[in-house]
Amino acid sequence: MSKKLSMGRLREALQTTLTVVGIVLVLAMVATATDSLWLVGIVVVGLLLLEAGVWGLADPLLPDDRSYHPLRSKVDEFIGDVRRLNERAVAGEEAGVERMRERLHRRVDDIFEAAGKTEE
To answer: Is the pTM of this model over 0.70?
Structure first.
């Protein structure tokens, strides 16, 4: 098992664990607490854990194992252009669609050039 796969699985497990612990805390306190101040405090902590898991707030604690940042950047740009292509197509902008076709072809060339590179 590679380090990248295990780090991704660890990140996913941590996010899932935070979410589940948050849910369990909230449900347990609502079901069992008799002191309202204690109940509110634990529910808030549970909700914070839940949000941390859902929003992936544990990610900054774990290192980014990506090494091919230039390729990732070019693919992100390509995806943004695909969204813009669809906007133009929905709006019926034939000239805009044709410009996006040309731009996407250039982006594909950029992607091939960035493949395998670890620095920009």
So the answer is: no
